[in-house]
Amino acid sequence: MTNITKYWLLLESMQFATINDTKEHGHAQYLKESSLTNDMQRLSHNVQEFRKYIKLPTKDLVRQLLEDLNLKHMMGEAVQLGEEGDLATLYSFYGIFMIKEIADNVNFISNAKEDLVAERHKCLFIACIQDIAEFSLQQHLHPNFYKGRPILFSRPHDKKTSFKNLEIYIGGFTHVLFIKPLHIGKSLDGPILQYMAGIFSILMACEDKEYVMADQEIINKTACLQRVWLSLPKSLYFRNLMLMKNNKILSPSGQKILQRQLLIRLWSPGGFNALVFALAECKKEEHSLEELISGLVAQPAYSVKAQKSLIAQILNFSRACVDNQELLQYMGVGLLSLRRLYDLNDENKTFVEAWLQGQLHILIQPDCEKDFTVMDWCNFQHLISLLFHLFCTSSVECLPSNLLTSYLNLILNIFYHVQQHNNTQLLQGHLKALILKCLHNQNAEDLHNIIEAVALQRTDFKEWFALHDCICFDENPLNSQELRIILTSEGPHLWDPLPALVVILKSSTFNLLSFNIFLILFRLLPKLIEEDEEEKKKTISENMELLQPEDLQQKILREVNTTFARRLHIIKALESLVQHQPMKCMINENSNELLRCLADILINFPELNKHLSEINESTLMITLILIREIMQISTTRTDDFHAVLSKPLHNLYENIDQQSLKYQILSVLHLLQGSNDLNVRYDPSKDQFEEARNLVEAKEPYLQVEGIEKLIKLINCRDTYTVSNAHAIVAMALNTLKSPESYTFLNCVRLFTTLVHIMEFEILDLLGDEYVADSSTLDYRLVVGEVILKIGRELGPLCYKYKAILLNCFMNGCRSQLGEFRLSAFSNLAQLCRILTYQVYQYFQELLHLIDCELTSGKYLPAKRAAVMVLSDLLEGMDNLFDYEEMLLPIYRLLKCLAYSKQSDEQIRIHATNGLKNLSEKCTKLVEDITASRLEKEIKILGVKDSSKRDLKNHILEMN
């Protein structure tokens, strides 16, 4: 057992050039800077101290070192090596022997009390290692190291390299440098650099035949480098490697050895991370870290296997940067390296695509059971954040966005689910960025195909991956701040991607992209109408004779929903986009693009009509009005459209009989010819209409009312220009109807009652949709209901043609959850029933059911009163009671129950009593008419030309 105590005493008696920082090492006492200014004197002192404690001659000391270091091939040269050399060599041999003995006999890693080493002794030992490395390893490196890096590696000018001595020094330091407790801060960084440089010096000398060494010894030296890589920080290894490689004086063989070592370490696990951190510490300001590392990593000369290994490392490094915010500053290094590797060859592209599919495969085809978690929420957030950084943080460094094209429907579906929950703003932002980046980088043709696939929900669009139908995002009951992704057993979840896409476009600054998508959807609508008509005829005619009546009804409902759902979704998307203010600006700035779309629709209109049951004149009218309006506001020349539109417009003019359509066609033709007025010089009708239009669009209520009055007069006069612009007037009227000024919207009601005489169905259909729209405000819907009622009064008995629209919109309002709205709906329904008494017959059961529901479960008393008024007004409008004999008995029983019930409200009893009074009066009148009629005798022979008796059922006179 070696006496270690003497070595601690020896260390205390030695003198080192190292200045120790007392702040770093705490309370321990350390040697100050040596008072000796001459290194040779210091070395002489230390050698004398060595000889006091180590009683071995130099030759025996060297022989003992060779045996202990297993350098048997050098035993024959022990005498020669042990001869008295210079002072630095003697100091190096004694120092190597001492540090090896201490390293072999002291357990620095153990925490046992008998093994503990004083901090003072430990720091003295570190200082000794540093000092010995300066005189042993530092002064025996390959000569090229001193020529290329004189600041980093230096020695006296008269000193020559001894590779044999260097081999002994390397063997000695191998026993010491891998003791981790000695690595306090960067205390051993210098010796490790010199140690690695010494190994490479021997390898370079062997390569250049300057030094001969057995193959096994070369393998042993290479194994020492591997031990440094595995045991010490990898960033330190790369730092030292780059410091040595940045030497232009090195021989080609030396550069080759260092380059091979760099690649081996770079391709091994953790190599890319180590390279990044190493170069981040020692990079020069004039070189970008991203460019420096990407230049080293993305080399086409590397093997395919090595490139794939680097890609896998970079992807793992990027994930670590996302998980650790402190590493996020290095994300750009990984992105640029990954992009350059991706662009090298097709194998790398395939590898990245496979990685991306592997990350998202769990959402496409989960392997878990129903009602179990598909993916941890934190992992899901990190995945989306990783994709965001890989594709969206830079247009130069990121991966190409076409990789996301196949997953666009998947990402849209995820956004559709996520946006319905709170605390997901950051996740929504990442998903939006991915979708917008993917769409923004598409060319015109690909963008059209993608939007068409999204709008039509096509699943056959070039490897279109979709979110699994049964995946559901809902609240996590264990953590309110998170969601959970489960595979539900409830079945597939239906969704529509267009609303989610519209939300993303409206919240972004990609205005040109929004405009292009708007044009694509606009062009898609006529084509979709044509396809829907053909599909509808095909599906409805198949196997209908094999269905039962109830099955037939359900099938028809499904077919209608399938036929019109896509068209409705596109219309809603267009409506939402066109109301977006930036979109209006884009339309004004790019009016020619929209005009070209309308021109295509107009050109294809005759073909479209071949597939429709009847010519859609309103569609043609709207198209012509839009073309004319855009041409009038356009600031660019429209000469290009003259040749395109002239022939289709002339053909339409000859084949259409409606005068208003012809007028619109003439208007467009005159504009195409460069004339803005219809009579070449002056058109008073147009001027009057434009004047009224400007007044209506003014902000002042009194001006709006004046404009409405002028429009009413023009419509009553059947002014051709005004009638041809009826759709524009309807749009203005709907906008003006929202005015808070009662004087304005009441006059607007008069405008609608005037408009209904020239376009009955369009007005009622439009107002019916506005009335039942839950998204509109309550006040606006109440005003719309007043307009519908006024129109019904204006039309009088002629409104029977539109009874379905009128009755359905008000009966729909009777089901509203808003009590005030139900009150208005029942009141309007009551007055409408008075007008359409006979036509209510087929809706009677539904009407009676609505009234019964309101009376039994309604909580708003005024609505109940209005419901009873419906029955009273219905009786008031009846003329001949025989025509309503099946309706009278249920009405009578209900009114009688309400009139005599003590639990009923007083107003309800009054309304019910009035209804019974009206019924009694009409019955009395009926009896008087019967008794007043002249009685005639009729002789009849039974069996000859018998006619069936009228089935009076429960006549009103038989009621008790």
UniProtKB/TrEMBL annotation:
GO biological process: protein secretion
Domain RNA polymerase II assembly factor Rtp1 C-terminal per the UniProt entry, residue ranges: 689-797
SUPFAM superfamilies per UniProt: ARM repeat
Alphabetized InterPro entries for the sequence: ARM-like, ARM-type_fold, Rtp1_C1, TANGO6/Rtp1
Coiled coil (residue ranges): none
Pfam families linked: RTP1_C1
PANTHER family reported in the protein's UniProt record: TRANSPORT AND GOLGI ORGANIZATION PROTEIN 6 FAMILY MEMBER (PTHR20959), TRANSPORT AND GOLGI ORGANIZATION PROTEIN 6 HOMOLOG (PTHR20959:SF1)
Similarity field: Belongs to the Tango6 family.
Official protein name in the record: RNA polymerase II assembly factor Rtp1 C-terminal domain-containing protein
Species for this entry: Glossina pallidipes
